[in-house]
Predict the structure.
Amino acid sequence: MDLSKLTYSKSDSGKMPLKPVPKTTIESNDGIGGTDVLKVSPAYSKIDGILSTNLVFVLSGGEKREKDFLRELIRQRELHSLRVAFMSEKGQGLQPYQMQERWSEIQSTGMFKINSQVYHLDTTDKVFLLSDVDEFYDQLEKIFKNRSNDEQGQWIVSNPCFEIWLYYCYLDNPEIDLECLVSEPVATRSRKLKTLGPMLVAGGLNPCKAFERMTIGIENSQKHYSADENGIPVLFATQMHEMARYLIDTMNQNADEYSEYVKRKEEWRRFMKSRV
């Protein structure tokens, strides 16, 4: 993997793990509020098969909520063992067929181009393609029927949209809470779900806070998961629990980084609440 001029070295597996090394900074335009500072070690070290900083590529149909959900891993302010390189189309997102075209091009060239950054795709890199079902069922059906055994690029589909994953990070009764979506026309289900958020959860289905609640989301999502004969999630089902589990497991390989991050956030909120 080539993180656009960032490299890592593989240490002798028989040696003791390296001590943490001081961090340097590299300017990186992450597309969220301008130029961001990516904190990285001056030398990436791989010990016993564990890479200190992993890179995950996300090709997303939606460009707002999905990006906000992954913001901590894009900016790397507090989490440093995993970085997300996020690609979408600003202002309009991408339809499934457009995502498939881009993924095919990336596989052909071996390069991910995001803003001014160029990443060289390695065969070991993980790639997630996030898509809503919405009115794109026919596109997804065609893609799923024609796709090869591509283990590197994993489709993560949500029905009707990504917000159903955010819902599961907070709640667990879609048959009651979201019953109105059953009779809603397919073309307007996503828009309707987005309007229900503030009525169900104070502050709405906040994607940034949902990131801290991935463990809850995984449990709730798995309970309600079902797919049709084409492998496409049915209404109220999402495959996001698969991606979330990958993210948590990868981060927790590094001194339980995600679990410790969640604890810090919970302690901070308890402290702030006690001051009110």
